[in-house]
C-alpha cells in the first residue's frame, strides 16, 4: 500500500501556525514512507473563502518547503460528485429525507435540554409518511446512522477511542437546496483522492466518529487516523495571537528561516530522544506517528528564536545575502547595488554570528551597503566629536601605509599606534568603528576594514574627518 496523506485547510484566513504543523506532520509521514502528500483547499464556505486566503496558504506552504505531489484539489468544484454520493446512499437505503422545519428542530432541542438529554436529532423522519409533510418544505438528506452499539476509532496517537452510537445523530449530508455539507464532502474527497492516513488536530476526533459512519454506509475502507494535540501558549492556555499564533507569513516577516520554523514545529508534540536540532533528512528518516505525544504542546517564541540563531549561523553566506537584502532595502529605502552585495557576502561570516533573525542581521549589516557621507548614531557622533577625529587624523597615514590589507596587519598597526600615544586599544578602535559604520556596534573592526577594502575604508575615514 502506498501511503497518501493530505492537508486540507479552509481558505478563510491565513495559514496559522497550528495548520502549518499539521501540514508538516502529513508531509513528513508521506516522505518517511515513500508515499504522497496532497493538498486540498476546502473552499465550500463561499462567503468566507477568499482568493487572498488561498494565495496565502499556497505561499506559506511553499515558503516552508512543504511541496505537494499533485495539483491541489478544490472542494467546491466537486460539489456535484458529493451530491451524487448522497443520492446513491438515499437509493440504497443508507440515507433518508428529513422534512423537519427549523421550528421543529428548535423545539426538539429545547425539549432535550429541558430533560437534561444530549442535544441531537431524534430521527423522527426516518419513517415519516411523506403525506404528513408540510407543503413547500424542501427536505434535507440525512445519514441513516446506527442507533445502538458503538463506533470505535483506533487512533495512532490517542489510542482506541469509543463513541456510543446513541450519541451520534443522523447528520445532514445534503441541505435543502441540494448542496453537500462539509462532513460529506470531506469523506468523499478523502475516498476519491485515495487518502490512506488522516493526520489532523484532536479537535476533529468527534468528527472522525461521525465520518466513519459515512465510510461504512458506502462500504468504503476507512483511513488510518492520527489526531494530534492542539498547541497551547506558554501559560497552558489555548494558543492565541498574544502567544504568537500568527500567520506563517508573519514569521517570515520576523526574519525567521523556514528550516528553523520546520524544526521548531516538528518538536511541538513529536520527539526523538533529547534531539533538538533535527535536519530535514533526519526528520524524514525518524518521523513516525507513535512518537507523537498525547498532551498539548506549548508554543515558546524564545525557543523558536534560539533555533533560528542556530540555522542563521549554519546557512550559506550567499543565501543569507539574498534573504537579508530585502530587509535592508525596506529599512533604508535604497536599493542595494552590486558593491553592497559584494561587501555583504565578504562580511557575512562575521555578521551572522551576531544575529538571531534576518531583521537583526539587516540592522547590523546595513552599513556595508551605503556610501559616505552617511549619518552617525548619537553615540558614534559623540565619539567623533569628543576627540575621535584627532585619533583618526593621526592613525590615517599609518593605515594608508599598510603593507597588506589583512585583519592581523591592520590590528598590529592599531595596537602600535595605541602604545605610541598611550591610548587603550578601544580608544583607537571606537573612533575607527564610528567612522566606518556610523555606529558603535559592529563585527570586529579589523574585519570590517578588510571587508570594505583599502580604498573604501579610507573614503569613509576621510568623510568622517
Automatic annotation (TrEMBL):
Query: Where found in the cell?
Result: Cytoplasm
A Pfam family reported for this protein in Swiss-Prot or TrEMBL: tRNA-synt_1c
User: Which parts of the sequence bind Zn(2+)?
Assistant: 98, 100, 125, 127
**Listed PROSITE patterns:** AA_TRNA_LIGASE_I
Record's keyword annotation contains Metal-binding? yes
Cofactor binding note = Binds 1 zinc ion per subunit.
Which parts of the sequence form the motif 'HIGH' region?
9-19
- State the InterPro entries in the record: aa-tRNA-synth_I_cd-bd, aa-tRNA-synth_I_codon-bd_sub2, aa-tRNA-synth_I_CS, aa_tRNA-synth_I_cd-bd_sf, Glu-tRNA-ligase_bac/mito, Glu/Gln-tRNA-synth, Glu/Gln-tRNA-synth_Ib_cat-dom, GluQ/Sye
* Residue ranges constituting the Glutamyl/glutaminyl-tRNA synthetase class Ib catalytic domain according to the UniProt record: 3-305
Query: Which GO cellular component term is one of those annotated?
Result: cytosol
EC number(s) from the headed UniProt entry: 6.1.1.17
According to the UniProt entry, its GO molecular function terms are: ATP binding; glutamate-tRNA ligase activity; tRNA binding; zinc ion binding
Task: List, in alphabetical order, the GO biological process terms annotated in this UniProt record.
Answer: glutamyl-tRNA aminoacylation
Where the record places motif 'KMSKS' region is 238-242
Q: Kindly state the subunit structure of this protein.
A: Monomer.
The protein's job, in short, is: Catalyzes the attachment of glutamate to tRNA(Glu) in a two-step reaction: glutamate is first activated by ATP to form Glu-AMP and then transferred to the acceptor end of tRNA(Glu).
Instruction: Provide the family line.
Output: Belongs to the class-I aminoacyl-tRNA synthetase family. Glutamate--tRNA ligase type 1 subfamily.
Q: What is this protein called?
A: Glutamate--tRNA ligase
Q: What organism does this protein naturally occur in?
A: Tistrella mobilis (strain KA081020-065)
State which gene encodes it. gltX
